[in-house]
Amino acid sequence: MNSTPPPRLWWTALGLGFLGWGIAAARHGLLQSNAYDLGLFDQWAWLIGNGHAPISSMEGVHVLADHGAWVFYLSGLLYWLNPSIQWLLASQALALSLTAIPIWMLAAQAGLSRKLCWLSCLLWWLQPLVFNVNLFDFHPEVWVMPGLALAIWSQRQQRIGLWLFCLTLMLGCRDGLVLITLGLSLSLLMQRRWSWAIAGTALSGTWMLLLSQSLYPFLRNGEGPKAASQMFSHLGTNLSEILVTLVSRPWLALTHIDWGGGAFYLLVLILPTLPFWRKRSLIILSAAVPLLLVNLNAEASSYRTLIHHYSLPFAVLSVTAAIDGLATKQTRAFPWKGFAWAVACWIALAKPWFFTGPYFNKVGLINSVNQAILKLTPQDRILTTSYLVPHISHRKHIAFAKPSLSKQAFEDGWTVLLLNPSQPGWGSKGSTQRRLLNQAQDRNWTCQNWNSGLELCRKPDAAPQLHRRNTPARNGPPQ
Fold first, then answer.
1. In 3D, which of 70, 87, 103 has the Cα closest to residue 138?
2. Cβ distance 175 to 210 under 8 Å?
3. Which of 73, 86, 276, 448 has the maximum number of C-beta atoms within 10 A of its C-beta?
4. What are the CA-CA distances from residue 411 to residues 391, 408, 414, 415 (Å)?
5. Together in a domain, 107 and 225
6. Nearest 5°: CA angle at 354, between 350 and 360?
7. How far apart are CA 276 and CA 270, in angstroms?
8. Are residues 49 and 163 in the same domain?
9. Are residue 107 and residue 246 in the same domain, yes or no?
């Protein structure tokens, strides 16, 4: 069968990509996006696009010191043309949808019929993880999911140059994708493709050594990878200690796992494609072993959900495993039962139903937020709530009112507080925000508030001036 994806597939993928963008943009417009990670990357992209040093005011971290994602510098060109957060939302949605193109190529390469090639693409689009990740803010490794599928295709097509290029792009989107590049090398080792396995391992190891021994210490004042303390504090405090522990005492990684929660995580992860797997599928699934071990050992529960991006590469591997299983069966009939199962899993585990209620809990804030934003200037140094950060992050100085940051808020040079104690958002507390607003009043900041609970306070010497907080504006809309 011709492995060239048909035009209808391209149009379908583009249509679904624009639909995914629209859904993500709607979530953002409903004030459901957050500082982490949409606001964080939006500020970095804006800083790059405007020629500023890409150092986050929320974390004090250079963009390359976050995950070594040098590919993210491409966003600076887009923001130079037109600074808009929609670039991130649109590119993420389109990258996820267009991953179906190399998946079709993989299915055709495996000798599947045209119907089964379409089924393979549907299995990708119906992954609950794919839908949920599209909605959950933004992270740059999503951009390279088509590259992961293409890497698998190229290694099966014996095109080592293209394979190494795809692996390089993957490593340039996030340091954590080294778990997948090493995993792919592991699967090649099982196939006794020694030169390929050595090349992949050497590329992965060289990049990690460069990051951990040079780039991270240089940009993080001598510290190592950011994720080390997050995920593996029980194994070591830096990458070298962790690797030594894993080699010398690997049982520590297994004994630390919460097998109850871990088993549930693995179950919901594999359910959509499990009916299609066969013994032949185990080879490509072996590439997921490093990623899954890390996610199971991570101290943060976000590594074991169908919402965050940490498990997304497994979705590509699981669909590829389904393709290998379908190729084993040697059937051209469309497996309606398996397709129905995938649809049922999507209905049960994807989150479109959030638009029936949970995503509308801030609708009453939208009008007052829009009015408050009009009162801000690009020079303002703003301390706000997490869900407002992505709406005003095109500036050098912005952060959200987490308790640790709020203790020194008035000594850190913030000139504007835009807070809502009644809906403090992720990572903050109503009591923290109320204390900040009271302290601003005590310092004679000019303040204005809305019936929605939103309050904006400005330092006296920071123009433009606002009505004082003790005016009648408290019970009515801003003038």
1. 87
2. no
3. 276
4. 25, 5, 8, 10
5. yes
6. 165
7. 11
8. yes
9. yes
Looking at 308-374, list the stretches that DSSP marks H as alpha helix, in order from N- to C-terminal side.
312-329, 336-349, 366-374
Write out the residue range of the structural domain in which residue 393 sits: 365-475
What is the model's pLDDT at position 412? 83
Would 380 be classed as within a structural domain? yes
In a shared domain, residues 135 and 283: yes
Which one of 356, 389, 417 terminates a domain?
A: 356
Total of domains in the chain: 2
**Residue 446's beta-bridge partner residues?**
458
Q: How far apart, in whole angstroms, are the C-alpha atoms of residue 102 and residue 147?
A: 8
What are 126-141's pLDDT values in tens digits? 999 999 999 999 999 9
The reported pTM is: 0.91
CA distance 401 to 424: 8
CB 191 within 8 A of CB 184: no
- Residues 195, 91: one domain? yes
Q: What is the pLDDT of residue 376?
A: 95
Pull the structure tokens for residue 32. 């459901």
Non-local (6+) Cβ contacts of 239 within 8 A are 208, 212, 224, 225, 228
Residues of the chain short of pLDDT 50, as ranges, are 465-479
CB atoms within 10 A of CB 290: 19
pLDDT, tens only, 300-333: 888 999 999 999 999 999 999 999 999 997 777 8
Nearest CA-CA partner of 38 in 302, 309, 305, 231:
309
Residue 234: how many CB atoms within 10 A of its CB?
Answer: 13
What tokens were used for 75?
């966003």
